[in-house]
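Async update (no meeting this week)

Hi team, since we skipped the sync, here's where things stand on the single-chain job. The sequence we agreed to prioritize is pasted below, unchanged from the tracker. I ran it this morning and attached the output directly underneath so nobody has to dig for it. Comments welcome in thread, and please keep replies under the output.
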Amino acid sequence: MHQSGAAAKTPSPPSESACPYTPVDSPNSPNFSSSKYSKYNPLNYMFSDLSQDRAPNQAVALPTDREPSTIPKGSGGNWEYPSPQQMYNALLRKGYTDTDATAVESMVSVHNFLNEGAWAEIVEWERRFNEDETSQPKLIRFMGRPKEMTPKAALIQLVGKVNPTWARTEPPFDRHDWFVQREYNGQKSEVRYVIDYYSGPTEATGEPVFYLDVRPALTPTAAVERMMRWGGDVWYRASGASVREAEQN
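Output:
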């Protein structure tokens, strides 16, 4: 996927829609402490009090406006992305004290762009397993797990080491787990999706390139769903539908 573009005095209310990441004291960390973990929002594992205040020694002013996403929440409405000021404050609290404040707006732009791309992939997956077009999937919660490689990504790395011509050898720069509400025949269920984020070679124009590998986390049910989608995509190409669609456009 290609990126299409370049990245108040009172604290914001508790946020359930900011950039996800895995804190060092999360349940996925050996340093986990339940008393410390209580300060994170369980819907996205972010700080519950992402401030819009200007940081100490911050050289440039950053916007505090938050961009709405197209991603529906399980509780109603849509998720919102963090403002550049919130993103900067979160990075500082995570220990990235050398963050260039002038680059934060571009970082937010890339973050939002990739999340929208990930959701579009999830919607495409869910479309195949939801007969009721009026019932749309919803994102219940999510978390970043950048330090934990998925089994598929690890296998790709292994294959790439054996023969670099078979697979990309650069590991994903991030991983997210998104928990999606699916409604099928009136019954609601929760499906965990796994997203690997890869960087590709930069375009000649200098535009960055990203690849997202989005799929349901591997379970017996998800294995069948993966086979169904793979088989459907193969049939779509073999039948010439992709060529006809390209000609129509």
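Quick observations from my side:
Residues 34-218 form one domain.
DSSP finds six helices and eight strands in the chain.
Reply here if anything looks off.
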